[in-house]
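Lecture 7 notes: from sequence to structure.
We start with the chain below.
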Amino acid sequence: MDHPSHFVFGTHPEHGFAATATAHTPIHLADWYLTREQFERVPGTPGLYRLTRPDQDGARRTRQAVHDLRAQGFAVYADYTLDPASEPDLPEQLASARQTRLARAATTRSPQLRTTVPPSPLPVASPVPGAAAVRPVGRSR
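Predicted structure tokens for the same chain:
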């Protein structure tokens, strides 16, 4: 590691998604933050926390915890698979692809218009009898 981290996240062979605080983080702060990020202390191990209910979208919840702690200003080291900075931002990519498809569709003619008969010219209105005898309102002679 290039710089000292406050928290380290990874996978543990026995406890699943795990986190620990380094010597740069006071124990009471580490406990407070990790508990609120849905991690619980592993009994019998000093400073090791495991994710509660890891079978309920554990990888995403762990990545969210890494993101949240970084947003609070902590230096966090995470395994590549648990680091939100290492995965592409899929919602933005999907939105961009959708916008591209919409823009492309807006600039092309509809295939339905190609197979229809071209529209006929608008009918020319014939004059209405007696229309010339109507005087505009507000004029007097």
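Points to note: Strands lie at 7-12, 16-21, 39-41, 48-51, 76-78. The helical segments are 27-36, 58-71, 90-107, 111-115.
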